[in-house]
Amino acid sequence: MPTGTSTTSRPSGRPRGADTAARREDILRVAAELFSVDGYRGTSMSRVAKAAGISHTGLVHHFPTKDDLLGAVMDRRDELDTARAFADAGARPTGWDYLHAMVQMVRNNEEHPGMVRLFTTVSGEAVDPEHPANAWLRRHHEATVRRLRNAFQQAAEAGQLAPDAPLDAMCRLIVAAMDGLQTQWLTGTAPGMADELACLVEAFEARWRR
Amino acid sequence: MPTGTSTTSRPSGRPRGADTAARREDILRVAAELFSVDGYRGTSMSRVAKAAGISHTGLVHHFPTKDDLLGAVMDRRDELDTARAFADAGARPTGWDYLHAMVQMVRNNEEHPGMVRLFTTVSGEAVDPEHPANAWLRRHHEATVRRLRNAFQQAAEAGQLAPDAPLDAMCRLIVAAMDGLQTQWLTGTAPGMADELACLVEAFEARWRR
DNA sequence: CCTACCGATCGGTAGG
DNA sequence: CCTACCGATCGGTAGG
């Protein structure tokens, strides 16, 4: 009995479509782990292939270039990040509640050091305008700032924000604090991240909440 | 006439001691530039040598391993950083004044993008415990936190700090904000860093200054 | 002509 | 400090 014919029903042989999706997921998982420790520049395609249990050329078949692989890894990170954020709070909180939900999201991140390491390591390399993840980093920061800005504007419309509050600076500060706390947490300088971020939100409320 | 003998007076030939120090400084300057863009892992000894105008083995003569070179580059960064911090304020301010002086120091850093890039890029790689700059990164963060803690304790002794202020979290937040703002500034998400940091200090004062 | 790979090797470069 | 090299590994591609 021939295997891999062009007939529509295949009682034996490899289920091709499903295998491809599962294989890609395997690759993305091990690549994320390697990038998170050694960075994009410090990780070779061969090492990713070996960790995924396939050949180098097998890896290239799924991701033609190393840049393609990085892009897929970071897209997957964002998807998992968003999925977890939504799982925590069914509907997205608004106004100051959004800030407190963000603290909870950071507390959740303390259970996922691999994700935090991936973000921090790749961000460090990606400040170089020539780095393949530079556009991703800018997009990520701008999207995060935008969501914070929306929350502050909701607070303002509800009369809960001082009219002279420096909106943009506050948004950027929260993003900066989250990024910087990750570095300190990963190196052991800080025991956590959420309590520190909560301290920032508390100070903001003391100064600019109405 | 022989060149480079061990006699004390050399009317001709290369003044060796001076040359060595100057050459090392040249190497450290170009290495800092390369590390700041491509990172430690993304920079080769050969490329450093070429940029410094010497051979690969000539570079190895001054810095036996790549790790030695990185250590010297980061030590030099810290020296220049400290020198500029002292130049700004003759004596180190105390209490809340120290926080405001730090904002001024960050404003000064906006004139030195290369230094900021070096710090951010190497920090990103160095969260890996196996990275040669991991110890440097931890030392840097702990020293910065210690100086901030001293300042807050001076404020407390002067009765200018609420007794329930979360000292450690505040110190780590300031360090995190400085690090994170550097990333956003380098990628163009934020137009500056000092105004944002000043916003953090203002919020802290509103919440915990007495 | 398709898919999901394989073993082998391309021209160059890495740190030392 | 140079020329001349090493063992190995880089990202990417060949034909089958």
Describe, in plain words, how this protein is organized in 3D.
2 copies of one chain form a homodimer. By secondary structure, the first copy, chain A, is mainly α. The first copy, chain A, has helices spanning 16-38, 45-52, 56-62, 66-88, 96-109, 113-126, 134-157, 167-187, 194-208. Chain A folds into 2 domains: 18-64, Orthogonal Bundle (Arc Repressor Mutant, subunit A); 70-208, Tetracycline Repressor, domain 2 (Orthogonal Bundle). The model of chain A is unreliable at 1-15 (pLDDT under 50). Chain A contains 9 helices and no strands. Chains A and B meet through helix 6, helix 7, helix 8 and helix 9 of A and helix 6, helix 7, helix 8 and helix 9 of B. The first copy, chain A, binds a DNA duplex (16 and 16 nucleotides) through residues 4, 6, 14, 16-17, 19-20, 23, 44-46, 54-58, 60-62, 64-66.
Features:
homodimer; 210 residues; mainly alpha; Arc Repressor Mutant, subunit A; 0% strand; elongated; DNA-binding
Structure, briefly:
The structure is a homodimer of 210-residue chains. Chain A has 9 helices and no strands.
